[in-house]
Amino acid sequence: MRAAWRRGGAGGSFAPAKQLPSFPHLMNRLYALLICLLTLPLAVLGGTIKGRVTDARTGEPLVGTTVYLRGTGHSDQAQLDGTFTIRNVAAGEYELIGQLMTYEPHSQRITLTSAQPDQVLNLRLRDKNQALAEVTVQGHRDPEGEVAARRIEQVAPSIVNVVSAQAIQTSPDIQVANVLQRVSGVTLERSTNGDGRYAIVRGMDKRYNYTLVNGIKIPSPDPYNRYVPLDIFPADLLQRLEVTKALTPSMEGDAIGGVVNLVMKDAPAERTLSGQLGTGYGQLFADRSFLGFGRGQVNMKSPAERNGSGYQATPADFPWVNYTRKAARPNLLGNLTFGSRYGKAQRLGVLLAGSYQAQTRGSNGYFYETGITQDNQPALRTLHVQQYSTAQQRLGLNAKLDYRLNARNTLRFYGVYLQLDEAQARAETDTTYKGTARPDVDRLLRNRYQRQGIANATLQGEHQLAPRLAVTWSLVYSRATNNVPDVVEQDLKLTASGNYYQNATRTWLDNTDQDKAAYLNLKYTLLEGLDVSAGALYRDKDRTNHYLAYSLRPSGQPATNEQDINSEAYTVFNPLGIYVGNNNYTAAEKVTATYGQARFVRGPWEVLGGVRTEYTDQSYITSLPATEAANRGGQKYLDVLPSLHLRYALDGRQNLRASYFSSISRPSFFELTPHNNAGSVSESNVYAEAGNPYLLHTQAQNLDLRYEFFGAGNDQVMLGAFYKNIKNPIEYGLVTLPSSTVTVYQPINPGTGAATNFGFEWVGVKYLGNFGLSTNYTFTQSAITTDKGRSATAEDTRVSVAQKRPLQGQSKHVANASLLYKNPRSGFDVQLAYVYTGARIVQVGQFLGLDYWQRAQSQLDFSAEKRLTKSDKRFGLTAYVKVQNLLNTPYQVDILAAGAPGVLGTPAVANYPYQERADRVSVVNQTYRAYYLAGLRFRL
């Protein structure tokens, strides 16, 4: 072999080179290199750290906890069952950190070796509020999360459903009423904009439920009734939403269906600033323009208010509104929440929250005025084709303060203000039918501005007077207002002989409902597991209603300018605008209540029972002359309401419950005032409407059974049944006035004096990995018998006949189903939510079988959100999107053929517009289209 030479040292001498390795030796080296390359990924992957994060006190999984190795890039988030996995960790010693908002960080040293590359750990985090026991309400644990909501349901003394702020935030809903439709057994009564307004619980009409804010009953701005319009509440102010379906003695007794409690956000354990900003648009206004008017054109005060009650109004006092058609503005939604604790040992907690929503909503549709033929069949009279355009502004403010005087005494203050402004314009075309279509058509415009407000201020104290004796008290002032100034209706009639302006009206309506209340509760622990409680309530309610209406009459000549109402020479027909009737009254209600109850806990058993008494004193003064007997009146009655609630814990995750309670429902002041509008009967209301000063309040006996299972994470099963026997239910029926031949349509206690309502409920939530299915279903059956009118041989000859039917508002089948995807690791959350509401009576008709039935409907909504920042950062940013009413579900109301078999499909009805089926008469249809919203949320 020829020698090879290499350069040597600095001297430049040369030395022979090393000989190249032999081929076998080279192959051995290549094999060693290949094995090293193959095993290198295993060395890089390293070990795996697995585990589960739970609450140190309750053992519940803490979803979303960030788990990381300090000083490395390794981290994970706890999944729905609390588990986490950190992979590819090289051998070495590390500090493992578990961190979650409102919990103390958990630190743990771990060591991974080549011999033991994997670790399985359990992290138990302590609530910060437990560490600060001297400034914390017991049970204030991750208050906005799903874990806390499930825990409240599990340990509650009675039957409760809870929706957490976390679930509300990720749902497609932005108002409280729409959130309620996700609760088992709850359906909604909607406004003309498609938004939910009132809750119907277990088929019991809205009159049979009441609303609380932070556990305190609030008054209603509704001009006619007690129930609170829930669309006034923005959902983003809530910490949780509770629906109680079985009353305990410590709860006010005037609810037969259920109680809705809005728990507003509370002061957090550490300083927090959060908020959101979103925008959206309604598909309805992508297809048509928005009809609007300037709010500055609305006369906030009537001529009588401006000039005195004796003022003679002239046409100059009623300037006409100018309407505009333009593209709808994009919607704007925003909220901001700040919370912190201050002072020595953080004794002072502060929470300030505000929400603002500006939306444009509306609907397209029609409705028929109906009458009756001489063979007791529905007759179609006037067809109203309508377009609604509504500009809404919703404002919500919430303030909470709590101060720990010492270890035994705490003071709290809650302040809530809610305001809903609606500027609504309606364009309507009316066509009147009497057998055949008449050539005259009305073109009607109406504008209506309404401001509703609710203000509540509550001062509370909690005091541990002795080791076994505790006392709580509350002083409450609440005020609800409703102002509807200068409602304008202007009508242009189009006929073959010419077009004429018709009578116009201008009305002013306002009402105020004011509550002053005091609560006192005492609790004494006799021995471990047994305590007794007693308490009292006094509420003084004052209500005032005002109504003023002016009628303007045209010249009777053809319109000189159909596009300008100012060209018409109107005269004021009733210049004083005085309206004597049921909307002008003052009323008072004084409720004095006491209760006593005992709670016994031993092993798996919890027994709570007691009795409540409520004494009601109602009085009113109407606008009728003082010389008339109906000028004033009232009622007084005492109710004794026992209840008993049993809970048996099969194990740490399963409960059996049984509840009995007695409850009542009071009539509204509007229903008690003895008005009679016999002089203003229309074709659709053949009988005069009247109040009923002899109306009795409703009483009910209620039974409930429920099985509950609370699985890992959010898994849950609830199966229950209920039965209600209702005495003196309030329904509308036909009555002949005493010593008279006049028949009126008025609220009555039906002749049978009783109604029944029973059914069963199912709730099921199950997750497989990150995917989940949430379902609930309620079956309800009710019955009531009322008197109805029926035609005999001629249209003006009618008799009274008893009819058995379901309760107003009761749907036999109600169901919810939501497909869920939750990935805490990536912060991605998706929900597709479906709601089914079965057919139900929405208005009790005056005539036999001719009730108004809302068709069964299905609604589909969608929501998604994605965290844009890392979970271990203090600053969090999340993008979200919500879509409501994907199916464009309409609101449809019919008179069914079941009320008049074999007749509704006759050509006389079937040939009218919008009558497409022979088995029903379509009387109402409203469509809303889809609604889209997108935005960003942040948290510091």
From TrEMBL:
It holds the Pfam family Plug. This is TonB-dependent receptor. The chain crosses the membrane at residues 30-49. Residues 156-259 form the TonB-dependent receptor plug domain. Belongs to the TonB-dependent receptor family. The keyword Transmembrane helix applies. The lineage of its organism: Bacteria, Pseudomonadati, Bacteroidota, Cytophagia, Cytophagales. Residues 492-886 form the TonB-dependent receptor-like beta-barrel domain. Its main location: membrane. Keywords: Cell outer membrane, Membrane, Receptor, TonB box, Transmembrane, Transmembrane helix. It is found in: Cell outer membrane. GO terms for cellular component: cell outer membrane. The keyword Nucleotidyltransferase does not apply. It comes from Hymenobacter nivis. SUPFAM superfamilies: Carboxypeptidase regulatory domain-like, Porins.
